[in-house]
Amino acid sequence: xKKLLVLAWVLxxxxxxxxxxxxxxxxxxxxxxxxxxxxxSAVFPPEGYTPAGGIEVVLKITVKADGTVSDITIVKSxxxxxxxxxxxxxxxxxxxxxxxxxxxxxxxxxVPFKFPERLKPADPKGGKNGDVVKPGKDGKNGDVVKPGKDGKNGDVVKPGKDGKNGDVVKPGKDGKNGDVVKPGKDGKGDGKTPAVKPDGKNANKPQGKDxxxxxxxxxxxxxxxxxxxxxxxxxxxxxxxxxxNAEFQISGKVLQITTxxxxxxxxxxxxxxxxxxxxxxxxxxxxxxxxxxxEHGQDFEIKAGFIPVNLPGHIHAQGYADMHFIMPxxxxxxxxxxxVYDVTQGDFAVAGSAIFNYGVRRRGTNLFLTLGxxxxxxxxxxxxxxxxxxxxxAAAQFSETDGYGDGNRASLSAKAMGRxxxxxDEKTHIIMHIGGYGGRSVLPGILRLxxxxxxxVDFYGTYSYPTARAQSGFFTRFETGxxxxxYLQGDGEKITFNTYIFRTDSRxxxxxxxxxxxxxxxxxxxxxxxxxxxxxxxxxxxxxxxxESGNTKILSLPGMFRIGMSIRSDFVDQKEDLIFPAQNxxxxxxxxxxxxxxxxxxxxxxRVGVMKYLSARAGFRADALAFQINDELANRQYNVxxxxxxxxxxxRDAMGFAYGPRATIEAGPFFPYKKKGGLSIVxxxxxxxxxxxxxxxxxxxxxxFAKVRSFETGVxxxxxxxxxxxxxxxxxxxxxxxxxxxxxxxxxxxxDTERYGAMISAIAKPMKNLLFSGSFTYSRGxxxxxxxxxxxxxxxxxxxxxLIPYIPLFVGRxxxxxxxxxxxxxxxxxxxxxxxxYTFLGKRPLPYAQWSxxxxxxxxxxxxxxxxVTFKIDIxxxxxxxxxxxxxxxxxxxxxxxxxSLPQRHVVAGAPxxxxxxxxxxx
Length: 923
Description:
By secondary structure, the protein is mostly beta strands. It has two domains: 5-232, 2-Layer Sandwich (TolA/TonB C-terminal domain), CATH 3.30.2420.10; 273-922, Beta Barrel (Maltoporin, Chain A), CATH 2.40.170.20. Helices cover 5% and strands 48% of the residues. It has seven helices and 47 strands. The strands form nine sheets. The chain has a 22-stranded antiparallel β-barrel. It has a five-stranded mixed β-sheet with strand order 12-18-19-16-17.
């Protein structure tokens, strides 16, 4: 209660300033149209006349990324004089540029100009539409003449010789093309008021005040009413066909249905993707997707903006990807591709890939504070200056918690990120990026299920031995980079150049087996404990280049093509030791290696519209990877109680190529719903790769990459703006697969594997304030052959046809939110929103013919917002289920005096019911 009072006092102290500066409404469209900053009215041509009702001129213009106007096209002409007047005016307009995905873009818009009625005087010869009077002395342009006798139908002046410049011409029957009509007070003719004023000036001017007189030309007026400029964006929201049916664009609104505590949590919205949190913030999440146990990232490629997250050659897991540095508050959307079907997907894109797209839609300064269960506290700040691009912001966050259990999940973390998007000119954009993260957590370790059931250890507890209590994780990341985007002459033609450098440091201390490890050459240390300490320090630098043609012609067919390349170098130092926890002393060196890796990727693809309802996309990617390994402890003969008579160490290098095609065919859309969306049939095939763990390579070896072949076919239905439904079946083959080995705390090879299954997903907005996202995936992974014996696994227990361990057969996820205005008071609306999320994780096969328990989790969020103040309550695991976030089955010995040889189920407890309250304000 005390912390809640402090929370309220701190944030409410900012309320007066916030209310004085109310924020604009959150953008609701993908493209934000340009907004006028300065408008200049068209000046009515002095010599111009209009038919009854006036004239309208409609222009199509390009509003450039710097807010100025170019490329004027006349859509509806009002004649040369009025067209020129409209063009002269619009060239002086300035805009707040249009925004697309946080970037300033050039767009085409239509702008109408309305000129009020101004009629020509009558003809002297007609005698029908007004009496003729004697012209002025010079017979030119507006001389005043004596009115006719009756003064009823408008006196006419004698026309000039050329019939131009305001001189009267012969009337006609239709009142057009200079023909005279009956003038009157309103310019239409009442048969009473003369056509010209007998003041010696502007004789050809209609009766009444000039519509421009007394008005600022910055705004056009008609009869005292301000005209609205109808601005319509055209040519920007062209629907881009996705790479495959397995590509999902997850919007910020879907991500915000329920609170996502970390970057990894946001991925749970993607179909079939489950993210585990068994060990806290000090270690990367576990990832399951479409029959793959991607461990900490070995089979799932992740990028945050244009910077990669996966770490090749990491000592704990190949492709290690810690996402805790990503703040959900600055993620605008996520692109997920399940499978490998796009040529931009590189190393580790085996099960798929994801890109976190940064952006802050609600501009201003957002300060928030979260308090919750187990002394959880989070303080955050997001600064998003108004008037800047969506991906211009600075953000920071500090958090701490005691963690559930007996102090065995305590963690601290700090993260910060800044991005600045600016334009050198209307075609050249630059994004600067910098970010940092540090996190440490106490790890609970893993418990034998039989010990929990026997009451020897609490479900949320940890073994009492020092070798179990000393488990922890630590991770830091610093990154910086820049992106240059240059728009060229074509429709959508552009070049993108990215460069980055980042450094990561990780240290893990884990003990999964208790007191099993001992060595014949150190018999006196038997029972010292199996506490592994793994350290990995990596510096990564790289960049990529991409040319996109935009809409063009390929073999006389409409299409586009892309050509790109990527370059990356990693420099890694890693060690693994066994330690005494009390003194933190090393009692055995296991690994000491320095690794350098270079990855050069080249790719190209094209998309062609073969016919109205058929399009095809095909491409090819090739990667060359080179490795240098300096393994200081290689060639050591373990378990040999004799002194070795040679020096340790094994320096080696290896290189290899990985390449493969990727293609998608899409037929449709058919059966459009209200002329929008429709049904499409999509089939995709792709070949990708995963780089090998560097220390597994031999000198001069042609690097044996894990080869992946993915196939998917399915349908998608887009019922207009109501949402999207996808159904698909998939198959994946993978050579040289790996699974996690808890005894060594690393992965081990299990040979060739395959997966197959099916997926259904839907995003719908059936009502104005109701949003739903849901999916259900079935997948089955099996061994294609029995694993070969290795030094690490001389007697593999698996055989051909066995299920791949630890992978759930079913993954389901559903999210729904509903919001509405409750009441209006003090100039603001009080809006309430409720969101629910449901996760289903099916049974997971374990080694030795065991199965895990299924998982059912329910989350809830309730949010109240008024003006710029929000308060929300989040409840995770609403039902308070006792569930297993991780399950393994292996041999361990947690009693140092009683050796065991039988495998047992081991579990890590999932989080109990947790409450979080957050108060935020934007000013």
